[in-house]
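Recap slide: Pyrimidine nucleoside phosphorylase C-terminal domain-containing protein, sequence and predicted structure.
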Amino acid sequence: MCSDNPDYSHLPSAKHITQVLAQGSGVVTSINAMTMAEVNLALGAGRNRAGDPINFSVGIVLHKVVGEKVGKGEAWAEIHHDNPLPNSLLNNMQEALKLDSSIDPFNMPSLVVSRVS
């Protein structure tokens, strides 16, 4: 998350919110961004072709990021959707999360080396 208290009030609200629960416990070592992009596209948050409509009410909110600990059954993300959520999309999201129960939580190093002004 970019903020501890994100303000989504300027966006339309989805009809449904489905929590994505961790299937195990451990430290998040990766979240497959391509999988999440494909889920978003299937929800209508993106375009297959120029001119396709975009549904601004749907998408994914992450509650956990790489380096954070998550417990089994804990929501690590939520999917905002307007239509019934196919099990295949929820399964894809669950498979996007990789956990390691043998390591301690850690802070990801910044990908920004320096800022040029």
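The helical segments are 33-43, 87-96.
The chain has a mean pLDDT of 93.
(End of recap.)
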